[in-house]
Amino acid sequence: MYIRLKNKNFSKKVNDFLEKNKIKYFFALDGENIRDIPHKKLWKDIAYVPQAKSTVAAYTVEEMVLLGRSSHFSMLSLPKEEDLKIVHKVMEEMNLTRYAHKKC
Q1: What's the CA gap between 86 and 100, in Å, rounded?
Q2: Secondary structure in 3-state letters for the chain
Q3: Which of 27, 29, 66, 100 is most buried, by the most CB atoms less than 10 A from its CB?
Q4: Longest dimension (CA), the chain
Q5: Can you give the pLDDT at residue 31?
Q6: Residue-level pLDDT at 5
Q7: Residue pair 38/46 in contact by the 8 Å Cβ criterion
Q8: What are the tens digits of pLDDT across the range 46-64?
Q9: Contact, 101 vs 62, CB < 8 A?
Q10: CA angle at residue 34 from 3 to 78, to 5 degrees?
């Protein structure tokens, strides 16, 4: 998995520094190197919601968190009650509940 930074010079300098100093690194999820995790399982465990400078519609914070669960339901289905429970639990853990209905 590669993380692409907008400033290519910065990411190149970081890479050069790590290689020059022979620093070994990897990204882990629950202690497992993400390169060893099958893609389907990895994207069930990681939520990615791209950020854009302009949007057609404004989403609430709750809807944005729910977008992170999109890999758990099919394209044309609606989120289930279990999905909403998980979203609310995560928002509570992250202290975001008071922003649930605020537009992003």
Answers
A1: 13
A2: CCCCCCCHHHHHHHHHHHHHCCCCCCCEECCEEHHHCCHHHHHHHCCCCCCCCCCCCCCEHHHHHHHCCHHHCCCCCCCCHHHHHHHHHHHHHCCCHHHCCCEC
A3: 66
A4: 51
A5: 80
A6: 46
A7: no
A8: 776 666 656 567 889 999 8
A9: yes
A10: 80
**Which two tokens mark 2?**
């590669």
- Residue indicated by tokens 């992003």: 104
Residues 100 and 2: their CA atoms lie apart, in Å, by: 31
Note the pLDDT tens digit of each residue in 6-54: 555 665 676 677 677 777 766 777 788 777 888 778 777 777 666 665 6
Read off the tokens for 15: 């890479």
